[in-house]
Design brief:
Layout (H helix, E strand, L loop, with lengths): L19 E13 L3 E8 L2 E8 L5 H5 L6 E10 L12 E12 L16 H6 L1 H4 L3 H23 L3 E2 L17 E3 L7 E3 L5 H9 L4 E10 L10 E11 L3 H19 L4 E2 L5 E4 H8 L12 E3 L10 H8 L3 E7 L7 H13 L6 E6 L2 E4 L6 H11 L6 E7 L1 H18 L7 E2 L1 E5 L4 E3 L6 E3 L10 H7 L9 E6 L2 E8 L4 H10 L4 H7 L1 H7 L6 E7 H9 L29 H6 L10
Parallel strand pairs: 3-5, 6-9, 11-18, 12-19
Antiparallel strand pairs: 1-2, 1-4, 2-3, 4-5, 7-8, 9-10, 10-24, 13-14, 14-17, 15-16, 15-17, 19-22, 20-21, 22-23, 23-24
Helix pairs in contact: 4-6, 4-16, 5-15, 7-11, 12-13, 14-15
């Protein structure tokens, strides 16, 4: 069979001048100058400029072929008159002597050779064209490189890759499962794994010691900009005879190596990374995913009020509310409209507005007129404010208030340009509460991972208020994005039964839903710990892409639909009968 090409479209250099070569690729652009037609020929590896002379019988043929058609070209490599230093092949061009059209393209639904404003629905319907775009193509290549390097870094540390099942049992925790009906077992269903959690722990019980996997995970969740509906991939790991510090060491070597290699010139924090207890993170940053590029810190200012002279906050504090303060340097001379916008934002968020004191050159502003000179000096001393600074106050209570304070911190940081966009700032969030209270029902629920070990073990479960129990659970956060979650696992059956009992599950539920794992623990289980980081989100962060779909080959849209393959879709009555399923019309 005749060879389609001797070189790729990104390969030719000045040293190839004088060679006769064959190239194959897509017509990226055409420029017809009357006597010459220039064709940029593109393949996976790059672009080469090809020249058709009007004296050639190939000139009319290439004129008639649309861009994005696939062609084969033969010709002589010559020096390019106008060198293009922006292209690796920019010193040469191909003087065409033969042309074959392999596949002609229809009229395009959007431009491939340049970024345009094509709607996302059209881009996803024709995803194979979207993937030809230079930016998206490079995104996918970087994703592949990150996955390959992740594997290498794990193997360097003695980990072995194993594959765990895709068809498994449904479990009562986490997000909604994707269910798969069983034809052979009528009325019963498999679930696609939300994560390989139980299987990787069973591997530790089986004596495999250090496991990792680039694992597909399936969760029936609503989409967000940083969360793909349906499925995602994570670098999943587990290790035996391991502490929390052991896991941190492995991940800091792996993720630290990834960021150092693929940061593309941005500043990267170096390990060991800062460790912040969960409750401290909520207090200082209003988030368990703090963006440490933002220098603003929240402080508890409740004690400043009560009899301050500002009656609104004094009354709320006396009712049991909390006040947080945020010192913002150098903004005291901002116009009142700046603070009014923040006040309006707080009201939109249902938090009743903000208050502020601005230590301006012409005199203190905001609620300063309600505070005496002694209180103003106390404010400076207690919270580290200086002349020229402003102190922004907010009042509220509970988790909702904490999260609002974090959003306000982010908003002020973004509006004032305080966030260093040329850096990656990392931290560990540790000491998560083992349980939390359901705000609607008041029930005690697992807050993070039901398979983690409570700090204090059985003694804590028996003798502490459940809401005061901490867990050996941890998240890895970069630039305000949660990349990784993990935990030291609970490997003792009696502790697991008790932990689930407190969350409202009796022994029979544990035995039925986690029977394989609880049974295995009764036959000798090593202490073990692990984690998993999201591959899609990691690549999105490295590339500074705002939408996660642009780092995934064939993503679903915001309605969890594959517009290209037309999924989900209806199936035949025969298929439903084989699965013992009847579709009932929704009459709502």
């Amino acid at each position: 069979m005749q060879s389609y090409r001797t070189h790729t479209c990104g390969e030719l250099r000045g040293s190839d001048i004088g060679k006769k070569v064959k190239l194959g690729g897509w017509i990226h652009r055409k420029r017809n100058l009357g006597n010459l037609c220039f064709v940029d020929l593109r393949d996976h590896y790059g672009i080469t400029q090809c020249v058709f002379d009007s004296s050639s019988d190939l000139f009319e043929k290439i004129e008639a072929v649309r861009v994005e058609s696939v062609i084969g070209i033969e010709g002589d490599v010559v020096a390019r008159e106008s060198v293009n230093k922006n292209m690796p092949t920019g010193d040469v061009e191909l003087k065409v002597t033969a042309l074959e059209v392999y596949s002609e393209a229809d009229v395009l639904p959007f431009q491939v050779a340049m970024e345009d404003d094509a709607p996302e629905e059209i881009r996803l319907k024709y995803r194979f064209l979207d993937l030809r775009k230079d930016r998206i193509h490079k995104n996918i290549l970087l994703r592949s490189a990150v996955i390959q390097r992740s594997r290498e870094l794990m193997r360097e540390q003695g980990f072995t890759e194993y594959q765990t099942p895709i068809l498994t049992a449904s479990s009562p925790e986490g997000a909604r499962d994707f269910l798969v009906p069983s034809r052979i077992n009528p009325g019963k269903f498999y679930a696609l794994p939300q994560a390989p959690q139980q299987f990787k722990q069973l591997l530790m019980v089986s004596g495999f010691d250090r496991y990792f996997q680039v694992a597909p995970c399936f969760r029936d969740e609503d989409p967000r900009a940083d969360r793909s509906p349906g499925e995602f991939y994570q670098l999943d790991m587990e290790m035996s005879f391991a502490t929390q510090d052991d896991v941190f060491g492995v991940i800091e070597h792996t993720l630290g190596g990834i960021f150092n290699e693929f940061a593309n010139g941005k500043k990267v924090d170096q390990a060991p990374y800062l460790r912040i207890p969960f409750r401290e993170a909520m207090a200082k940053y209003g988030s368990d995913k703090p963006d440490l590029r933002n220098p603003l810190i929240l402080q508890n200012a409740t004690s400043f009020f009560g009899n301050s002279g500002f009656g609104v906050y004094d009354g709320l504090v006396n009712e049991g509310k909390m006040v947080k303060a945020m010192v913002v340097a150098g903004i005291a001379d901002k116009p009142r409209s700046f603070f009014d916008k923040l006040d309006a934002y707080a009201k939109e968020e249902g938090m009743g507005g903000i208050a502020y004191v601005a230590f301006a050159e012409a005199g203190a502003k905001g609620i300063a007129k309600l505070l005496n000179a002694e209180k103003l000096e106390e404010l400076k001393t207690a919270y580290g404010a200086k002349d020229g600074d402003a102190v922004i106050f907010m009042v509220g209570k509970g988790v909702k208030f904490d999260k609002f304070s974090g959003r306000l911190r982010n908003k002020v940081g973004e509006e004032l340009g305080l966030i260093d966009t040329n850096s990656f700032k990392m931290c560990w969030i540790v000491d998560f509460p083992f349980y939390e209270e359901n705000e609607e029902t008041g029930a005690v629920e697992f807050s993070h991972n039901p398979f983690s070990m409570p700090q204090g073990g059985m003694d804590a479960l028996l003798n502490k208020n459940p809401l005061d129990i901490l867990a050996y659970q941890y998240d890895f956060v970069c630039n305000g994005v949660e990349l990784l979650s993990g935990a030291v696992r609970n490997h003792k059956p009696e502790i697991m039964y008790k932990a689930f009992e407190i969350a409202g599950y009796d022994h029979s539920v544990v035995d039925s839903k986690f029977g394989g794992m609880i049974s295995a623990f009764k036959f000798g289980a090593p202490p073990h710990a692990g984690s998993a980081y999201g591959m899609d989100r990691l690549v999105m962060l490295l590339l500074d892409e705002p939408i996660i779909r642009d780092v995934i080959l064939f993503p679903l849209n915001g309605k969890a639909q594959d517009l290209m393959m037309q999924a989900p879709n209806y199936v035949t009555e025969q298929q439903l009968n084989e699965l013992h399923i009847e579709v009932v019309e929704d009459k709502r």
